[in-house]
Amino acid sequence: MYKQCGYCVTSDGKTIVCYHPTVDVPYELTQILKAHLSKEVLRDKKGPTIEELSKMFFTTKHRWYPVGQYHQRRRKKDPPKDR
Keywords of this protein's UniProt record, alphabetized (predicted)? Predict the structure, then answer.
């Protein structure tokens, strides 16, 4: 399934050049996202739980918690301008 990668050295011998061809993955091997939000699922809830969100987007649970007041107050109000 995987093709071999090719590599060579430049004429001055200082740089190694690698070639990684793209891999064609058959449709049968791709994963379908099973988590979906329908009206029946959200009937009694305001929205998805933190656990559902982390599974749906493949992130940690900490990504979905709000920033606390302590950290909000310590944030700089006027960040430095870009050059």
Answer: Mitochondrion, Ribonucleoprotein, Ribosomal protein, Transit peptide
Which two structure tokens, joined as six digits, stand for 40? 């029946």
- DSSP three-state, residue 19: strand
3 or 81: whose pLDDT is higher?
Answer: 81
- Identify whether the C-beta of residue 19 lies closer than 8 Å to the C-beta of residue 6: yes
Whose tokens are 């049968």? That residue is 28
CB atoms within 10 A of CB 56: 14
Structure tokens at 65: 């918690």
Q: What is the pLDDT of residue 26?
A: 83
Query: Could you give the CA distance from residue 67 to residue 83 in angstroms, rounded to a whole number?
Result: 29
DSSP state of 58: T
CA distance 77 to 14: 48
- DSSP conformation class of 39: T
